[in-house]
Amino acid sequence: MKKLINAPENVVDEALAGMLAAHPGYIRVEEPNIVVRKDAPKAGKVGIISGGGSGHEPMHGGFVGMGMLDAACPGAVFTSPVPDQMLAATKAVDSGAGVLHIVKNYTGDIMNFELAAELARAEGHEVSAVVIADDVAVKDSLYTAGRRGVGGTVLAEKIVGAAAEAGADLATVTALCQKVQDNVRSMGMALTSCTVPSAGKPTFEIADDEMEIGVGIHGEPGRSRMKLATADEITEMLATPILDDLPFERGDNVLAFVNGLGGTPLIELYIVFNKLQQLCAARGVTITRSLVGSYITSLDMAGCSITLLKLDDELTGYWDAPVNTPGLRWGV
Amino acid sequence: MKKLINAPENVVDEALAGMLAAHPGYIRVEEPNIVVRKDAPKAGKVGIISGGGSGHEPMHGGFVGMGMLDAACPGAVFTSPVPDQMLAATKAVDSGAGVLHIVKNYTGDIMNFELAAELARAEGHEVSAVVIADDVAVKDSLYTAGRRGVGGTVLAEKIVGAAAEAGADLATVTALCQKVQDNVRSMGMALTSCTVPSAGKPTFEIADDEMEIGVGIHGEPGRSRMKLATADEITEMLATPILDDLPFERGDNVLAFVNGLGGTPLIELYIVFNKLQQLCAARGVTITRSLVGSYITSLDMAGCSITLLKLDDELTGYWDAPVNTPGLRWGV
Predict the structure, then answer these.
(1) Which of A18, A55, B62, B174 might form a disulfide with B274, Cβ 3.0–4.6 angstroms?
(2) Among B22, B232, B266, beta carbon nearest to A57
């Protein structure tokens, strides 16, 4: 295992300490391991919380800040955070306007967020939740009933965070988050496995001439193992099921998000984006906003995912709104 | 070779096409393969140009935009751009206020930028140049007489770009770039080799329990090959020569830049940053600005580099100034 780490059991704590050291103007880190927007709670503002296993950086902790998340709950690597974290985060950010939990569709995350929401409600907090389940690759998976929550989560956090920043109430931001979920689709692929520090060896074996299409962000199996193909062929294998699913139709405007899984350099993501743009254009789908980079990762996995979000004026406006977090920053 | 590419010979062209498709509001791409700020030339503004071999993305093309570069000249992968590119870029961005070439210290880059500057001057353009040579690892290298130009280049492009945006004249931005060079030091390390697409195999062999300390951004040999160490030990091996070299002294404020080489995920960079902060604090050096992420890469190499820049009010102010490029964006 070749990693810049000290001891596997300290990876999350030390990375959080590093985040805090690098971004003291954005965040505070509180017990029991939650990342909280430095100025939370903001009077009158709905709190937006997400969380999940670590290893997907910058998601979620790197998206805490103005115009995005009020708090993030990082679990151990690829392990759901515990309800105590979501409860503490909910209490830390609730100004009285209520709190939305954005939950990726994994069984452990769902259970723990639900329990935390019950506990928070028992203490008088108003809590709603939206489940993101945007991965078209598989119907169910090892860790999921229904579709997995992947790249669409990044877009949901940005858009919903902007609405909350603008003063939308809990019912409105909850409906908006559901609207993002209803209009977003994703799929990923792996060239290599990732290696979980505590395991010390790759999650799965894959030959030098093979790839995994439809992989999950924890290295879960996808649709098919096949021989390595070109970037254009791979892009088509990912984009076609996405475009067909919603479906995205002639005349649609979309946000196109080409994401690296942690071990893939930007130069390759731009090659994928180039083909994606051609495939969308051929169907009369126009890319009006883009995001290219590694924003929801799978530790050191080489590979990429594609996410398309159908835009309207409301979603575009919230996407463009100012955001100021360690991981996404513009307009301020 | 596991990469998201089509044909090795098309990597740079397709990546540039993808950049243009993703960021049409920032850049235009012109013959002979130069990336130009969309609204260049800006009346009265000094033009800032850099360039070098491709494979270090987002540097340099991703730094073209408001407050940073006016144009970038991408060569083939790990190959200097040709003088025609620098000449075309110089002519494309010169508003009459002159053009600064920011050149990383590699023999080919130096020769070709010098020739382009001569040709541009012969056509009536005022051109100055500053060489960035910040790598403390080795005195000379395979491709360099003197120190290599590495992470300090990113900081120079941001700071000098801000000064040019604010209206500083050519002599002033040239002196400012030299000031950055005089106050910045870097060193890197590799866990793995990178693979140049046209070669199809790793640039160097390295055992599963080895690392290369002081590696260059093209996989050039560094100071020493040794057994894999912990993140804390590695951080100390990089930070100590940097801190000793300038030297950085008690009471100094610094910008600390922890950079990923392309195949290393952010979670590991934060672990390095955590230790770097402790090492600086122990010497009375205060990190007042930070940058953590993959900004000057070596294709798919796993590893990191550390850069420290001694700050004063002038450099801090230009660092904080608005920037709007695909690769760095804040304040707008």
Answers:
(1) A18
(2) B266
